[in-house]
Amino acid sequence: MYDFKSIKLDKNQSQHLYIQLYKKIKELILQGHLMEEERLLPVRKMAKTLEVNNVTVVKAYEILEKEGLVYKRIGSGTYIAKELPQELNNEDDISKHQASVKNQLMEQGHVKVEKNMINFASATPSAELFPVEDFKRVLNEVLDRDKGHAFDYQEGKGYYPLRSVLNKYIKHYGIEADTESIQIISGAQQGIDIISKALINYGDYVVIESPSYTGAMAAFHSRGAKIIDIPLQKDGLDLETLEKKIKIYKPRFIYVMPNFQNPTGISYSISKKKEILNICKRHNIYIVEDDYLSDLDFNSNDSTTLKKLDNHEIVIYVKSFSKIFMPGLRLGFLVIPSKLHHNLLMAKHTTDISTSGLLQRAFELYLNKGIWQKHLAYMEEQYKERFLLMEESINQYFPKYVDCQLPLGGVNFWLKLPKGFSSNKLYERAVKENVIFAPGNLFFMGNQDEGYFRLSIASVNPSEIKYGIKLLGNLIGEYIDNKEELRKDITIKPIL
Ligand SMILES: Cc1ncc(COP(=O)(O)O)c(C=O)c1O
């Protein structure tokens, strides 16, 4: 008989005790610690053993029963089901996916960039776009003004004047928050990591888009989360599947990029943005919104964030500046629902105590002096030129059977070779010609190569785009035209 005393529930956690208990028992069943037909402790005995009240146990058993994991025998008690529901039998697939995340990260490191390469792989701006001189001036001003204080530990939430100016900044995006809700982070990646640290218990489920940002998948995985990926449609997540999966897995949160998603460039329709909020509100689930790019809106005119639409404090907003400023600064911020302030602050503290005070102070001056607006306008102009050139070059040089949904903004173009062709093979050929891109398998949990690839405009200068796309177009043509036997599978679709 399993020793139920070893189940630990945390009364200080924001998650209800009955949900915690339901998840623990489910985990024990899935891991084989509780066997079919084994009897769970009667309600009162379980409640006494775990020092919770009877209702907690009753509610946990009810959810387990609803999911078909246990059943009741009248007058006898609650037993583990003889057969697990089909939906849960794909747990094996889930673990396989988890294992492949590590490989993906390693593979990501494989996209090696040599100096003479045309780099469509990196989604971070090239160094010649960095405002070095302007930043040098604000750094010097901070050092003259604050002297040694610039090198003190900063408060964990972040330098107050910076949080305050950021609060004004997000009002331009329609986000209403108080300064206390703003947490400075050392880059969005750290934000995602501390959210995971604060919210995920080993074995919890997290829902993501498929494909998704590799760095986030790796962070969730490192905290022991089981990741459920849901296919993206042209206008955002498949909502029917989302709600179904939420009902089955009761995830801790869903992680989404509603504007110019990485890697697909997809933007959610406004109706999907609203509906996702409704679904998550209905099921009491947080949404982690990664806004790494909504500033670069070239065609949509509606890069509304979920945070702007969030009336119920369920969105944790993550903002990175890496794509529009200097990634090596390692600065970003979160806007956090009030219930989570404390937990996230604790997670931040145990990670790095605080983000560099010197850089926060310099960035505050940079924003307050209005240099930021000038820089943003400059970056928009630079990226727009590249964006239009890319669109034109793909239209001109790529065979028509390469599929692409034109993004409405951002820096990524997501393309697909005809069925049966591998983007990894294309990559191998392209590297030999000194052109690189990001093969699509990097962004899928299962690491599958279905012919997708991502081209980014962030690190290529305009003079390289036409040449690079023409070369890639020729390589695609050669690769595909040499495979006569596969040509019958090709669906000819007009591009863009
Ligand atoms: C979608 C997404 N989120 C977060 C990050 C991490 O950003 P940061 O440099 O601010 O940590 C990246 C970096 O590539 C990204 O693509």
UniProtKB/TrEMBL annotation:
Signal peptide: none
Keyword Transport: no
UniProt superkingdom: Bacteria
Domain (HTH gntR-type) ranges: 15-83
InterPro entries, alphabetized: Aminotransferase_I/II_large, HTH_trans_reg/aminotransferase, PyrdxlP-dep_Trfase, PyrdxlP-dep_Trfase_major, PyrdxlP-dep_Trfase_small, Tscrpt_reg_HTH_GntR, WH-like_DNA-bd_sf, WH_DNA-bd_sf
SUPFAM superfamilies: PLP-dependent transferases, Winged helix' DNA-binding domain
Cofactor: pyridoxal 5'-phosphate
Xref: CDD domains: AAT_like, WHTH_GntR
Gene Ontology terms, MF aspect: DNA binding; DNA-binding transcription factor activity; pyridoxal phosphate binding; transaminase activity
Alphabetized UniProt keyword annotations: Aminotransferase, DNA-binding, Pyridoxal phosphate, Transcription, Transcription regulation, Transferase
Pfam families (alphabetical): Aminotran_1_2, GntR
PANTHER family, A to Z: HTH-TYPE TRANSCRIPTIONAL REGULATORY PROTEIN GABR (PTHR46577:SF1)
Complex formation: Homodimer.
Similarity-based family: Belongs to the class-I pyridoxal-phosphate-dependent aminotransferase family. In the C-terminal section; belongs to the class-I pyridoxal-phosphate-dependent aminotransferase family.
Name listed for the protein in its UniProt record: PLP-dependent aminotransferase family protein
